[in-house]
Amino acid sequence: MKIAAFSCREDEIGYFEGYGKQYGIDLVWTSNAPGLDNAKLVEGCQAVSVITTPIAEDLIRVWHKYGIKVISTRTVGYEHIHYQLAASLGITVSNVSYSAHTVAEYTVMCILMAIRRMKTIMTRYIGQDYSLKQVRGRELCHMTIGVIGTGQIGENMIANLSGFGCKILAYDPYPKEAVKKYAEYVSLIVFGVRVISSRCMRLLQRKPTI
After folding, report:
1. What burial letters (b/e) apply to 101-138, b meaning 16+ CB within 10 Å?
2. CA-to-CA separations, 92 to 25, 117, 196, 202, in angstroms, rounded
3. What is the pLDDT of residues 32-44, one digit of tens each?
4. pTM of this prediction?
């Protein structure tokens, strides 16, 4: 089997080469993003590995002509790939998975850093400036947080946020009883919400909720 890997970072190349030898896979890779200009790179390959670059219909059709059977994205999300067309052409689209807790905890960390102005604080710390001007933060417990999408990530994020004592509003076409313990489901993320976290971009594209 031969795989063409696009958008390869330096830290990924060793893994590609190591697993390629382990499983007897030939590999051709490039640091460039996939496009019509370098589509010929997949010639002789059965699969391609991509990351976040949009993979549109025209590129999928070209890859199909070259005999590509699998498009694998090195991300959890796969909305950047026109997977409906790929499926109609007999091309399998696959993604990777990792713990929902990872993203949920990272998101809560980002919220705390934002409301506590940590970027400014850390920048000043480098210069040993410990003044309080323009770095006074806000308390999460007094804020209302909106979470759009209560899948695994959204559910874990809400559970984490509940420990801070903040009010949580949630939106999802398929409410969960477990989430209702910590959040109020609403049909629209209303005025007064200070932080909004979206866990489902395709839902936002289909139906405005903010």
Report:
1. eebbeebbeebeeeebebeebeebeeeeeeeeeebeee
2. 18, 44, 34, 20
3. 999 999 999 999 9
4. 0.67
Q: Is 192 exposed, middle or buried (0-12, 13-18, 19+ CB in 10 A)?
A: exposed
Q: What is the mean pLDDT of residues 131-150?
A: 89
What one-letter code names the amino acid at 137? Answer: G
Using one digit for the tens of pLDDT, what is the confidence trace for 170-187? 988 889 999 999 999 988
Our separate counts of H helices and E strands in the chain read 8, 9
Helix (H, G, I), strand (E, B) or coil at 126: helix
- The CA distance from 41 to 37, in Å, is 9
The residues that bridge with 171 in the sheet, in sequence order, are 148
Q: How far apart are CA 150 and CA 81, in angstroms?
A: 23
